[in-house]
């Protein structure tokens, strides 16, 4: 248990990442997520065990002492059994993130990569440290921001570049474009969302039946049909000429079967504020790398491999149906 007198606690109280009260000497925390769920508890210290790749043919067992939160209370969606999880892994610039703690101990540089597996069974890969991948294309991250902010400039559907004013994606006090695997879906600002949905519908209307389900645009598809043969690819085009190419399973979600047909629905949502969030659905089969100040995108055979190189951001949460944006 971390006490309030511990330097770890006192330094993070200043950063609003920890709190103490007169009722005890335990260093606590309270976080609120974007989906209005929340968690609170106390900080503890324990050993983190991991494998260290010495070279391609040698792996050694390693461990390090890390401080993390032990939750005593959850609210909102965190209490629902279908969204149960073992925990939240934070990979940000702040001193209590796992990657920052390991870096401060000289165990690994501030570089990490992860890839969310897209076969429906969950899981994936997480690497702490540097990896190399071919055919990478870089785009600079917006500096001095609390999230992974990117300069998204345009969106393409198939061969069509959508008529969207790129200014709606620009970073300012109340808008911007961030990447966050902790957010399940992708959220586009209204000025981008409506043209995006209209373009998808126009591209597939001769092959499928468009329907609305609970206000969400869906498409009835024959069970034997191939999504990739019907639905267009989507390109997210960033500064520096980098494009992230999304396949249909990156922007569609499966609905409930209806009359022998399968409804596939737009998995992007309309943002209620000025922030475009590229969430976990867009990151399936995507590798995220964080180090300095760049976003990297590379398409490798059948998968899309993207990377971030920055820790100019708060935290990327693995396996989380939500995201921490507010104050503790």
From TrEMBL:
Q: Tell me a GO biological process for this protein.
A: proteolysis
**Highest taxon above the source species:** Eukaryota
| InterPro entries to which the protein is assigned, alphabetical | Aspartic_peptidase_A1, PEPTIDASE_A1, Peptidase_aspartic_dom_sf, TAXi_C, TAXi_N
Q: Name one GO molecular function term.
A: aspartic-type endopeptidase activity
Kindly list any coiled-coil regions of this protein. none
Q: Which residues form the Peptidase A1 domain?
A: 1-303
SUPFAM superfamilies in the record, alphabetically? Acid proteases
As for family, the record states: Belongs to the peptidase A1 family.
What name is this protein filed under? Peptidase A1 domain-containing protein
Write down the species: Centaurea solstitialis
What lineage, starting at the top, does this entry show? Eukaryota, Viridiplantae, Streptophyta, Embryophyta, Tracheophyta
